Amino acid sequence: QVQLVESGGGLVQAGGSLRLSCTASRSTFSGYDMNWYRQAPGKQREWVAIIRASGTTDYADSVKGRFTISRDNAKNTVYLQMNSLKPEDTAAYYCNRHFRQLPWGQGTQVTVSS
pLDDT tens across 85-100, in order? Predict the structure, then answer.
């Protein structure tokens, strides 16, 4: 079965940076639009960013100007560079295809302390 694997989370102080990675076993991201999502405790999962197969990107207003999504098709990996982190960015972060979504991975926890 295909597995999504997110990594790179951790505990960081406000204003700090982290880079998240997402890869998949037995699948490819090439040719697919890819999203990052996040879910804070007690809240619904929310969309964070998209990188299309064409390379164009879009971001949620809450992260625009601070987060950058990128992809390396040769490594079958999608990244999320997070700068100027805020306590409200604290959440578990997940990636998935935009269409034909794969089973969700376990996510990677990001905790931002004030």
Answer: 999 999 999 999 999 8
